[in-house]
Amino acid sequence: MEILILGAVIPILVFQILSFRQNLRFTTEKINQLMTGNLKQQAERVDLTIDNYVGQVYQIYSDQDISDNINILNDSNNPNKAAAFNHIYNRLRQYNLAKNNVRCVSIVCEDKTAITYDYITGSSLDTLWNGFPDMTATEAYLNAKDTAGIAITPTQSITEKNGETYVFHLSKRLYDLENLEQGSIATVIISIDSKALENICVSDFGADKLTATEITFIMDKNHRVIFFPDNIFMGVKLKEDLDPKEFIDLSGYFRGRQVALNEYEDINNGWLFYSAYDRDYIFKDAKRNQIFFLIMSVVTLLIVAILVIVLVTSIEWAVNRRKDAEIKALEAQINPHFLYNTLDSINWMAIEAGQYEISSMLRNLGVILRYSVSKSNSQVTVREVADWAEKYIGLQRVRFNNSFDYEINVAKEAEDKYIHKLIVQPFIENAIIHGFEKTKADGRLSVDIFIENENLCIIIEDNGCGMPRETVDMYNDRKRAADGEAMGIGLANVFSRILMYYQAKGSWNIVSMPGMGTAITIRLPVREKTDEDTNSRR
């Protein structure tokens, strides 16, 4: 028992613990790689979304009709300002950007005149910016003045009469492309609903604080929250010393649970994408399996210990019992020759009694037995295979009360070709037993063997009950068929032997329809008689 504990129990337990830790470390790395990859994909989708909005900004930027009317608004002496205002308003309305989550588009002139079309309210009066009397003081406007290209203003919360609205902005200074020397004439601001980010970042795993197992959020380098599943944190600027994990704790997500965090930086806009997930949830199956294996190891070791104790305490008594058992086993051995001789004796008794049909069946059974048990891995001629099939199918036909007919067709050029034994038998047996199991009459079985394109082709076809599509797909999958998934040992054995003997040159294909029958086509490389084949058959 001491040797058992020191030599088996302790090493196995140590191995289990080390294996679990190694698997946990490996799984963690893979999950983190997967999470980082998902963050990268989300960042790319966000970039594509923003690029779409950028294209809309440049469409407005290059709209000369808008530029001309802005110039009218900037001209204090021009009497057509009202018409220009309405013209720009109608022009913005025509862009129809509501389907792209654009809340509104604003043109802010240098004299603080602002024209806004709100795609939700469909109005220039009731807009997102109602609470901002001077749009030149907004962050979106000021960011555009400090940026040569398009400025992205992070998500901000705007209070409306129906509650809080969360938007981020793209803004750019406008120029009259036909008169660039006059400088900027206005600024365009596109305000985008945060739902554009929500559609990309929110999954079912982060929908509820209490049940969330994974969430994604976005921040900029200034610790401003651009997107978070809980709107209350949208647009909030966090303290610089606040760690993202601490922020997760403060948010109420994953409370009391271990959290793993992954980060990805989008170099295009400098945004930081974070993915947080519940480690306990992700690894619960792995831990459960480890506990199960530990329990199974302990139970197995206990069983082994009991067996060792029983064996050690009874070893002296067992020696004599073993000798007696060996003698009795030797006396009781039955070899194939005894079986053949017995069948021969029964055969003569049947002949003497005039039972010639039974005699014929016994002779065929003897041939089948000799064929099956002698050197099952050797090779035989197609002629021998056909002879065996003739006798085997004949016996089965009698067994099934002549409920089916059969024919065996062997092309002349194929008769002397060689094939491994017991390749065809399992398919014929399956066709009879399973194909005709519900057949009372009119069953039909055919076996055709011929040579085609340097391949020995064997087609076994029946009009039996057929097989469902799922079963046929499993049989036609080389790996699953050889592994024996969802099928009998006999078929799995023959599939694996075909792959072992013939490798890639051996193949099979099964076609079947329920209620109509099954056709099995086997293709093997043509093999001539060789010295090795001759020796294997002696």
Brief synopsis:
With 538 residues, the chain is an alpha+beta fold. It has 17 helices and 16 strands.
Describe this structure in words.
- The protein is α+β, with helices and mostly antiparallel strands and 538 residues long.
- Among the domains are: 62-197, Beta-Lactamase (2-Layer Sandwich); 375-536, Heat Shock Protein 90 (2-Layer Sandwich), CATH 3.30.565.10.
- The chain has helices spanning 2-61, 64-74, 81-94, 139-145, 195-201, 244-251, 279-282, 284-313, 315-332, 336-352, 356-373, 382-399, 425-433, 469-476, 478-483, 489-502, 531-536; strands at residues 102-109, 114-118, 151-160, 163-175, 184-193, 214-219, 225-227, 259-265, 272-278, 379-381, 404-410, 418-420, 443-452, 455-462, 507-513, 517-525.
- A 5-stranded antiparallel sheet has the order 2-1-5-4-3, with helices on both faces.
- It is elongated and about 135 Å long.
Topology at a glance:
Elements: H1 2-61, H2 64-74, H3 81-94, E1 102-109, E2 114-118, H4 139-145, E3 151-160, E4 163-175, E5 184-193, H5 195-201, E6 214-219, E7 225-227, H6 244-251, E8 259-265, E9 272-278, H7 279-282, H8 284-313, H9 315-332, H10 336-352, H11 356-373, E10 379-381, H12 382-399, E11 404-410, E12 418-420, H13 425-433, E13 443-452, E14 455-462, H14 469-476, H15 478-483, H16 489-502, E15 507-513, E16 517-525, H17 531-536
Parallel strand pairs: 11-13
Antiparallel strand pairs: 1-2, 1-5, 3-4, 4-5, 6-7, 6-9, 8-9, 10-12, 13-14, 14-16, 15-16
Helix pairs in contact: 1-5, 1-8, 2-3, 10-11, 11-12
